[in-house]
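S.,

Sequence below, as promised.
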Amino acid sequence: MTWYFDSHIHLSDPQYSPDMDFTLQEMDFLKIKACCVSMDAKNSLETLELAKKSELVLPFIGIHPECANDDLEKVVTMIEENHDTLAGIGEIGLDPTYTNNDEDTKRQTLVFETLLSCAEKYNKPVSIHSRKSLNEVFEVMTSYNTKHALLHWFDGSKKNLQKAMDMGFFVSFGPVMIYANDKQTLLSKSDESKILVETDGPVRFSRCFEMKPADIGFIPSVIFSASKVLGKSFDDTALLLEKNSNAYLGI
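The prediction came back faster than expected:
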């Protein structure tokens, strides 16, 4: 039996709470496991609690660059106390969109590097936010292990993609890839062993998704689209993505 993986979803976001029982049943029915990433200390606690409800929820905790001023020490302690049950560290990374000055930039980098160090200490995969910051992320990551690091929602150039492949990163593609030619091109040029799929829910997507919040049930559609780009059958693509997801997670 093949398992599908959503490599990056904010399943502990409050928007999902009212329908969580249904979502967990949906995951069981569709055979989807979710890498549930977190935004800050509070959300990380919520992720840990959600993971207790279902073994299909793979908990990632961390501090998103938007929340860089959050309680870093608390999250580090949380990682230390829960490393045996954690699937990974994330969402972490860099993003100049959320900085107003040099101090903000330094704080983002400190948080990113501190949590990367935690991931290395406990041999955990990381889910990295790299919007408008790929070159800076590449520079930081030269000092860290990239073999279990995911550049989620990869949105760089072909040159950036080649560098990511050379450094051993995984890259993930989401629902936008179904209707965006540039994302399909990037997917076609990725090392097949480094491709993952995601929803990044509850982000909303246009076109065929009618601006609805991303549901984990979108994953089969993303896999189908990827299979067309890769020139493979749906089943072969699903098997490839399962193998890649297990490699990313170190299981």
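The chain has a mean pLDDT of 97.

Coffee later?
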